[in-house]
Design a protein that fits this description.
Bound molecules: cytidine-5'-triphosphate, zinc ion
Structural class: mainly beta
Largest sheet: 5 strands, antiparallel
CATH class of the largest domain: Alpha Beta
CATH architecture of the largest domain: 2-Layer Sandwich
Strand content: 35-45%
Order of helices and strands: EHEEHEEEEEEH
Helix content: 10-25%
Number of helices: 3
Strand order of the largest sheet: 2-3-1-4-5
Radius of gyration: 17 Å
């Protein structure tokens, strides 16, 4: 197990999930996506704007005692496309998964255009095409409305 400068800020966890390589400044948004408020009682470590070889700067979130549900992975990919999800058991990383942003996003976010067909009660599932990964820009399949990171964050 390698050690990094970030260890100086938050110690290793015993069992749980470490979300590493989060785009700098987005750790609190990741917590919001995961519905972690701090009231749940488990230990959560948050590190923001630490140096990273890959990204220049990055954020890290460490959640003691919880393993991330797969349904959250795509949501995290939207705001932190370079994130790595590490599952830790008895101090060892037993699983490491890089999030990846699919070319099309289905059913996770709503279209910001109130007159878009996807906002009616039609059996139409919301589809967005990823036009640009960073900064994020999505285009609605039905009405072509473009959505940016801030529009998406306001839905979580
Ligand atoms: N980590 C932790 N507690 C542990 C094990 C790991 O908090 N018991 C954290 C590390 O601090 C690091 C992340 O989980 O932020 C991934 O750990 P590891 O795979 O050991 O680090 P690297 O090899 O540097 O990861 P990568 O190659 O993904 O950058
Ligand atoms: Zn639309």
């Amino acid at each position: 197990m390698k050690s990094s400068k970030a260890e100086l800020y938050v110690k290793k966890i015993r069992n749980g999930t470490v979300i590493d390589h989060i785009s700098a400044g987005y750790a609190l948004d990741v917590l919001k996506i995961l519905n972690i408020t701090g009231k749940e009682g488990n230990t959560v470590g948050v590190v923001m704007n630490v140096p990273s070889k890959q990204l220049g700067k990055k954020d890290i979130v460490k959640i003691e005692g919880g393993e991330l549900k797969p349904e959250y992975v795509d949501k995290i990919a939207l705001i932190a496309p370079k994130a790595t999800i590490n599952i830790v058991r008895e101090y060892d990383v037993v699983e490491k998964k890089k999030v990846s942003l699919p070319r099309t996003i289905k059913g996770i976010i709503k279209c910001g255009n109130p007159s878009c067909i996807s906002n009616y009660n039609e059996p139409v599932s919301v589809i967005f095409h990823v036009q640009q990964e960073e900064p994020l820009r999505l285009r609605c399949h039905y009405c072509n409305r473009t959505m940016e990171k801030k529009d998406i964050l306001s839905q979580f």
